[in-house]
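Quick one: structure tokens for this chain, please?
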Amino acid sequence: MRPSTSRVLIADDHQAMRQGVRTLLESHADFQVVGEAANGREALDLALDTKPDIAILDYSLPLMNGLELTRAIKHELPHTEILIYTMHDRESILIDVLRAGARGYVLKSDSGIHLVSAAKALAKRKPYFSGAISETLLEHFIETNHGGEKGIMLTAREREIVQLIAEGKLNKQIAHMLNISVKTVETHRAAAMHKLKLRTTAELVLYAVRNNIVEP
């Protein structure tokens, strides 16, 4: 491996997409793919194990979505650059992942050259946003005088549990996955529902979908 080669982790729940990204990157001598993951938890474990220079993450990952994964990776590996590679161009998602520490955002509908350019920029510790995303960012900052920031803030653990509940996991399964007690799961679940003023699991699932925590 050349000294200037950047080590890359790819996380996407579609194998064909992961393979496409790998093939695209490995056609350039600048990159070495050190791992692939199909869900957020696997991606976090791989990141901690391989300590990549760049992590290319889909937003809609099962078990731990791209937002929570970005937060977790930046907390444990602050020098790893995060590139979100997704089909979502919603402003709310974009702003959330940037606040979490991502410095690149490219749409899957963009040409492959944007993905490579983004990876090259992040390798030099520079941010990168494809054209449509740059416009969305500009509009957001122009309209910041609207105010109205989110009033309800769930903790990272609460959001994690809300995602797993919305994905159909039972309290016992969640407890096993997160290595916590069922009682702790129930406590976080109750806290989240109280904050959100929700009474049923169906309402919690609807909240998760509307707020981009899970895919509909």
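The chain has two domains: 6-144, 156-210.
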